[in-house]
Each structure stands twice: as C-alpha cells, then as structure tokens.
Amino acid sequence: MDMEEDNRKLYPMKFIGLRDETSWGSVDYLVADLGFKDSMVDNGWFGGNTLSELMGTYLERVTGDDAFEYYGLQFPILVKVIETKDWQPLQVNVADQEAAERYDSFGKTVLWYILEAEKGSGIRLGFREDVEPAEFYRRCQEGKVEDILECVHPSVGDSILIKPGTVFAAGPGLRILEISECSELSFNLHGWGKETEGMMLEEAFDLIDYSPAEKPAAGPNASGTVEEGGRRVLTTEPEFTVTRIDLADGLHIFSEHPGSFAIYFCERGEAIIQTPSDDGGQSRYSLKAGQCILVPSEVNDFFIFPAAQDTRLLEVLTEKRVVRDPYVPDEAPDPHIKVWN
Predict the structure, then answer these.
(1) What is the pLDDT of residues 200-212, one digit of tens each?
(2) Exposed/middle/buried for 270, CB within 10 Å: 0-12, 13-18, 19+?
(3) Is the distance from CB of 253 to CB of 302 less than 8 angstroms?
C-alpha cells in the first residue's frame, strides 16, 4: 500500500512478533523501531507496513506532539519479552546524554515486569557496596565478580526499574516484560566464564555506577498506589509512565489534547478496545494474553472492556520531555493539559 496516499484516521495496531534466540534464552520484540528490528503491522489496512514506515508518513499522528517534538521520527518505546534459560551476560545501559554525545543515539532506561519466575531465580542488580573501578575490572578478568553484586529474587508481578549505569543480568527461569526507550545501546561486561561475543568492558568502564544498589521493593503490590479503576502506577520516569490495570470494569480513555500514544500489554485474560469508526459505528480490537497493541495519539477517545475474568493490562505512556540548554537558565514548567481518565 502506498501510505503517502492514505489519509484515513489511524486505529489501534497490533504487530507481528520478532523472535531472537540467544545462548542464554530468547527475546520476542513486540513493539520495535530499531532499524535492524522493525515491527510489522498485523491488522487493518496498514497490515504489512512497518512501524518505521508509519512514523515516516504519519509523524506526530502516531506518537503525539509531545513525543514527536523530542524523539522525531524515532518511535520512543521498545517492548519485548525476555525468557532466560541461563544467565545473561552482565551488562550496563547508557544514559541519554552519553548516548547522544558518543553514539548519536538515545540512551536506555528500563522497566522489567516479571511475568513468570521459577523458585530461586535471580537478577543481579548493581553492587552490594561501594566498589573501586579497578577492583571491578580485576574481578571481571578473574571471574570473581559475583561476590560484589547484589542479587534479588523476584516474584510474579514485581517491577524493577533499571537506570543507566546500573550493572545487571537476569538468571535462568524468568520470563520478563521489558519496557524501555527504543534503544539497544547496552554493553556486555562479563560472561560468567562462557565465551560471549561483544564483551566491551573497557568501552563502558566510565559509564558504570559503582555505588551501592538500591534494592527494589518486593511484591506485586509494592510499587505505586491503587487509583480508581484498578490502576496502579508502577513507575513515572521522563522516558515513560507504566501503569498496571486490573480491568474489572470498562475504562473510558479520553484526552482533549493527546500528547502521547498509549501501548497496552495484556498480562492475563482478554480485553476489547473499542473506538469510533469512520462510518459512525464502533470498531473493536481484541487483546489477548501476551499481546501488545499501540493506540496512536490520533485515537484520543476510546473504551477498554474486559472480555475475560481477572484481566490485567500494563499501560505505557510518554510525558512531555524538554531538551535543556545548559547555557540557558531553567524556566517555569510549560503548562500542558493531558487527561487520561
């Protein structure tokens, strides 16, 4: 389809998953605009077109004015599911400033949401105490780095925020929903004695936070507060806001000035997203467990209904981000209206 000639209103879109097998497990890319991984639309008249093609044609109609002002043609969010059968390499993500200055890229802040966890499974997350860079380097070379790393044992429903600079690795027996900035700019630091390609310890040496890790709160209800409609905010960061929704009743989502798109991931059950159609009727889109759907910013008035008992969704939104000039004093925040009921 020639997208340049199609001016019909956008609609909620699902994508064909892209799966990668690795030495430690697998990665399913659910929503990705990475160049080497580009999600393809699976429903409606845009079926067969990629997310990058959508962005190149429809611009802020997909992401909203706020996101487009900051990210441009890059779709801002990456969603994938990680399954581990062995330990991932120890790695570190890059902050936005260093990513822009060194690699002409966006950085990567990550939220991990635990979908499945075998008994005893663990995540290495930061350092137990202050560590000298030279000691960390020596231990990586000698294969003795585990002793200085914090290890958490997550349960289903836990959410873990991984800031740039934090060293981390997921162990076997986990299924994790990863929500992040749309970037794969991370460096492998240590392979636990296995031959692992792409080790870049020296490259990332000054990007690492060597201070003690802040242990995440445990339990599926530890993050955020429950709001009306079964909503629990898991994290609010400059890069994204993630909210868990226990969908007992229908929700009406409306914004007079939609600055953002919305992504919904169905953790369990099934949901129906209902939007007005071009002919004056209603269009319905099913979202089953394990599926993701992108609701473009242009779709600013829609309903979400449960189609099964015990339905749970995760909602991803972006807020307005401003590029700060270090030579210009900060001004008062720019007021912005955005209502998500």
Answers:
(1) 999 999 999 999 9
(2) middle
(3) yes
